[in-house]
């Protein structure tokens, strides 16, 4: 692999580690049906509004140029995926499922991101690469079915989580494409700023009206600053350097990092079966990144 591809993988991994805390922290912020905290709508739009304020300051400080006419539509699509779709669907769903459960659904994201990336960037992964991606995703699905304990039935919130994965894949793909023509950190900043006229009024309208646990505010602060903002600096840069198809496979470790974080943060249980699947999925990532991927020429 080229030096920039290796750098892209490391930056992608840094972004994944940051994103891996998103589900546990969202669970802290939203609470449970027995002990509700913030509403899912407030968490989703509130975190975007907070991150947009930081983004506006950053764009001014770095004297970022205005997006070109050709960049506005991809920015809007990126915003729809990662500023609205993913946060809204996951925040609503997380009140009804544990972070460990939700984490396994995230396992379909690498394959979805790779598919979007291949389409947008005209990348041509080898059959071996797709075999590894499919094997990793199949392992995650098998894990979800085994942990469900009721045949192939999944929780209704899983539909929201799957929708969130689709939104994230599209947002990641278009964001990575924009990172080829503008600074990676500017992509998420502009996506957040152009969303502010919508996110801020709705966040204020849905703000909590009752006393909340301190942990809920800490969870909200994390998803606003790290999940919604800083994590994308590393992630979009990694996708731009290493290629969306290849770097997206690093996401296969994200479900299991989320599970590891959920144990101390939420008191959820991590068993031998989960660890066994974690090792198997990480193995597919290791093999998959060795497979050839023909990158589009600049």
TrEMBL record:
Sequence ranges assigned to domain EamA in this UniProt record: 8-135, 157-286
The family this protein is said to belong to: Belongs to the EamA transporter family.
Parts of the chain that traverse the membrane: 41-60, 72-93, 99-120, 127-146, 152-175, 187-204, 216-236, 248-266, 272-288
Compartments in which it is found: Membrane
Pfam families per record: EamA (PF00892)
Keywords recorded for this protein, A-Z: Membrane, Transmembrane, Transmembrane helix
Membrane topology: Multi-pass membrane protein
Principal subcellular localisation of the protein: membrane
Recorded GO CC terms: membrane
The protein's name in its UniProt record: DMT family transporter
Natural source organism: Ramlibacter albus
Coiled-coil stretches noted in the UniProt entry, renumbered to this chain: none
């Amino acid at each position: 692999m080229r030096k920039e591809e290796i750098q892209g993988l490391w930056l992608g991994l840094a972004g994944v580690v940051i994103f891996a805390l998103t589900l546990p922290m969202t669970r802290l912020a939203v609470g449970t049906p027995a002990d509700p905290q913030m509403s899912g709508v407030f968490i989703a739009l509130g975190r975007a509004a907070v991150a947009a304020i930081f983004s506006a300051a950053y764009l001014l400080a770095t004297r970022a140029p205005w997006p070109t006419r050709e960049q506005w539509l991809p920015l809007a699509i990126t915003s729809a995926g990662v500023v609205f779709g993913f946060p809204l669907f996951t925040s609503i769903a997380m009140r009804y499922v544990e972070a460990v459960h939700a984490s396994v659904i995230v396992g379909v994201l690498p394959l979805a991101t790779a598919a979007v990336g291949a389409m947008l960037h005209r990348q041509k992964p080898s059959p071996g690469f797709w075999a590894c991606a499919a094997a990793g995703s199949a392992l995650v699905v098998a894990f979800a079915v085994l942990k469900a304990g009721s045949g192939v039935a999944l929780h209704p919130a899983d539909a929201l989580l799957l929708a969130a994965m689709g939104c994230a894949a599209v947002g990641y793909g278009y964001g990575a494409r924009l990172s080829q023509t503008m600074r990676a950190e500017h992509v998420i900043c502009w996506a957040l700023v152009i969303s502010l006229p919508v996110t801020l009024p709705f966040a204020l309208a849905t703000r909590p009206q009752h006393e909340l646990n301190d942990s809920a505010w800490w969870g909200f602060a994390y998803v606003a600053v790290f999940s919604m903002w800083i994590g994308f600096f590393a992630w979009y840069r990694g996708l731009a350097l290493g290629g969306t198809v290849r770097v997206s496979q690093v996401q296969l470790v994200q479900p299991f990092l989320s599970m590891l974080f959920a144990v101390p943060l939420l008191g959820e249980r991590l068993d031998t079966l989960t660890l066994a699947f974690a090792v198997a999925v990480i193995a597919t990532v290791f093999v998959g990144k060795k497979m050839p991927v023909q990158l589009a020429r600049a």
